[in-house]
## 1
Amino acid sequence: MPVTPRIETQAQSTLSPRRGFKRIVEIANIPLMIVMIVLVSFGLLVVWSATQGSEKYSFSHQLSGVFIGLAFMLLIWRLDYRRFALLTVPLLILDIVLVLMPHMPVIGVTINGASSWVSLFGFQFQPGELAKIVTILFLAALVSKYRGRLDSGKEYLKVVGVLLVLLLGIMSQPDMGTGLVFVAIGAAILFSGGANRKWLLITILVIFIVLVVAFLADPLLDQAIGHDVFLKEYQKNRLLVFLNEDLDPSGVSYNLKQAKIAIGSGGLIGKGFNNATQSGLGFLPEAPTDFVFCVLAEEFGFVGSVGLLTLYGLLFYVVFRIALRTVDPFGSLVIMGIVGMWAFQILQNIGMTCGLMPITGIPLPFISYGSSFMLANFIALGLILSVWTNGSGKVSRQHLNIKDA
């Protein structure tokens, strides 16, 4: 008679703490864990330096965010990610709720002109950060379901239509930075899922053209209606300063010039840890968050900047290898969505501090200050580790308890 394998997952087994730690070491992707530890440690050093003497930012808050993120990473890792592929409708509902939460009375909070925050039980967080992860899971589930049929206009339009609805919800906050991240996530998953390349390119071009038209028509509409329609005043200033740095000398232009001064003054090896004058003397605004790369470049110089980019390169190399050996299409698409999210955030954040991209307020993965952002990054890592453990045929057989019934 044929032998039926009985699979007992890690979550079903009872392990002592010592045995549990040994188990984690056995099933962990060691290169990924090493890169993560170095990257997060590097980020904590820079944030500690950037928050010294600040009344607005607290290093202990960032540290607690890292520990909470680690706990969620381990929790997600222990789950079988394949369960999420069966929850397409609940994921979509959760995504819509997260996108709309900042607009809800009582709990919605406006900070720096954007209604992107929620206050619950004395804690403030950004639902949009968690919405990114839910969007990755939802789109990966939907695209894997339609895999092989995305050359059909019907299936492709379904995926793009849902993505555009979520995008409109984010842009209404308004949060252009997070909206652009949603576009990057969707493009990465659709491209990896076999969508028609021509349709995908046309979709991205249409979104770009709509944004340009909205920017050009916004002043006329604002004047006719009497209030901001598409873009807030600070968003318009950011785009105008990108086109002409001499505009708004005491606002966005000042921020950009101080960022460039910080990066340039770091030289080859930097001024040394905790010796950044631009952030230390208060010249660099939002140093721990949007402009944290400037602090890193000023203290550790060109060498430190290249070191950070090398760490990101190693992270993507390890993650790509996991995606390539994953036998489940859903798992591969989840990883590619995460890669798309991280890659765009890195390019946009570093690009805007150098004046190569408009300032959008997109943070730097694992480096920038923010517990909501850090939590989302660790949840993404947990999903990658879950795919590594459960999605690869070799890893699944080796590290799940497979016994003969």
## 2
Amino acid sequence: MNQERFEGSRLINERARELMPGGVSSPIRAFGAVEREPVALWRGKGPYVWDTDGNRYVDYVLSWGPLILGHADPDVVAAIKEQAELGSGFGTVTSLEVVLAKLINEAIPDIEQIRFVNSGTEATMSAVRLARGYTGRDKIIVFSGSYHGHADSLLVGTKTGVAFDDGRSSAGVTAATAADTLVVPYNDLNKVEEMLEREGEMVAAIMVEPMAANMGLVLPEDNFLPGLRRLADHYGVILIFDEVLAGFRVVYGGGEVVHGVKPDLITLGKVIGGGLPVGAYGGRREIMEHVAPMGEVFQAGSQAGNAIGMAAGIAQLRRLKEPGVYEQLADKTQRLVVGITTVAEAVGVPLVAQARGSIFGLSFQEGSVKDYETAIKTDKELFKRWFWGMLRRGVYLAPGPLEVGYLSVSHGEEEIEATVRVAGEVFKELVR
């Protein structure tokens, strides 16, 4: 499985850098954290992807999460083809929107009304605007290291690789905008309470990932989410669950099913679009009725609810409703993580591994990982060597030490066993 042929990728990257900033359409794809030339992928099928040089990889990135059935799933492909022949979009309401909305409502009853958008960023940005419009307040609370998309008010205290003294995570975000975003550590309920004691009358929303999956995988402590619900109720704050990444990845539904805590608003994306650009936000009817045209909170989009995206999402969710899907996904993910942990321990590589549903996180350090401050202690040099060792042997992982991995329905015993075997080989190299 030794794969040293990357000349085609090199040529594509060279041309891409002439035409696009950094040669990519999203920064993580530049492979900056692993300091090597990105691989240029062109085809995927099931659990595998191929680069332009013909190298095949077991894929644990899955287009950053949406492809929970695997690449080019026949049902999703058929739905896309069928709808494309009928028309890609119409700029008006369609029955497909109604069908997908109903599927989501049945899976997550807390979403009494839903608005489709084109991306996770649009979903989180719109949810924040709605919370502000509904409450008449300006400030929001987020958690350090979480990533909620690239809207200005959410580029504060997050992991972009840029950090200004006032907390901004990007140039172009104004100081006034940053001042309305309050950042506290994940899993630290006391800090949230202290912040609300000082700022509560001005806070519109708390936005949180029910399980943080943008700083590796960090699971909520038992009292954390119930505590946020209690504090939100006490201070009249809207509790927003950002489930763009984790929604429909752990169970057929969202965080309420997993954690037993009801949010006021929920943001979704990735899985609900079947691999196409689809996002959504929704929640309590009394809040959603403030969205235009019913209410005074404006949000619109020419391609929102586009027919092909809706068709792909319907096909994917219908497959995910089949009995046993999530149990099998969780079992496969657990076996993968246990296998990798076992071979790491065998040669003395420090590794903290966590999994929930079909998502897993690996952190190269001792001890526990409970927030961003502990997550960033991962050994970045060790990760870089691990990443390239795995890639050369045919396993494609996310090219960043704070990114998670995903499994799909199409990953089988063969892929898991091969990945664990390769991991053992790479770990032995790392300790030589």
